[in-house]
Amino acid sequence: VVGTVLQILAIVLAFFRLYHRLAIRRFWWDDTWAAVALLCGINCVVCNLLTTFATDREALIAYWIYNFSFTGVIWAVRMSILFSITRLIHPSKTSRQIAFSVSALFVLLASGLVAWKIYNCAYDLSWEKVHFAGCPFPSPMAIYQLSTDVISDSILVALPLNMLWNIKLPQKRQRKMILSIFSTSIVISFISISRAVCRLLRLSYATYITGIVEVSCSNRS
Question: Please, which domain of life does this record's source organism belong to (predicted)?
């Protein structure tokens, strides 16, 4: 119940963020990715409820959707943070090229995880016959997920930190925004890495709880 309330609150805050950006006519790529994260977050809430209260067949379909919507939330928020940083960077050609190169890296990392999930879950469907078993998550996949979390989150922490130290931002408001992005990146990084470690250690309940917290915090970003 607490997890559902947190996710709904995060969705409401994300909706108002997008509404405000549209109202002031400053909707950009970071807002587009935030909208993707919002849609995936709504899917997560609905599917999470269906896996608990729906029939076995409906719960199974909801689990499949939730499994990939969860990944969509996390990586869409990372892309949104990255483009938020890009929007605040001094508009030089080199800095923008670096940001778009990092976004391409994120797409590759996320695509690799999604492809592995699809193969792993679809190769052997015997887990579908076991009630609430869920798709198996082998150790190599957990290690890959942990690695991608560390790489992507380290970049998202390093970029705003570099801006604070090396780039002169003319407005105090810009510095506050960079500090906000830096703090958000730190929090999300800690939660995502904690979840990946719990997954690697096969702590199912802890993985589930940290997953809900991560989705909630990500959507609020």
Answer: Eukaryota
Res 9 pLDDT > 70: yes
- CA dihedral 139→143→146→151, nearest 10 degrees, is -170
Record the pTM.
0.81
Spatial contact of 90 and 69, defined as CB atoms under 8 Å apart? no
Listed in sequence order, the residues at least 6 apart from 88 whose beta carbon sits closer than 8 Å to its beta carbon are 163, 169, 174, 177, 178, 181
Q: Which residue is listed with tokens 């695509």?
A: 111
**Type of residue numbered 204:** S
Give, for 218, the enclosing helix (H) or strand (E).
Answer: helix 204-220
* One-letter amino acid of 32: T
Give the Cα separation of 221 and 206 in Å (integer).
22
- Structural contact between residues 156 and 82, judged by C-beta atoms closer than 8 angstroms: yes
Residue 12's pLDDT band (boundaries 50, 70, 90)?
A: confident
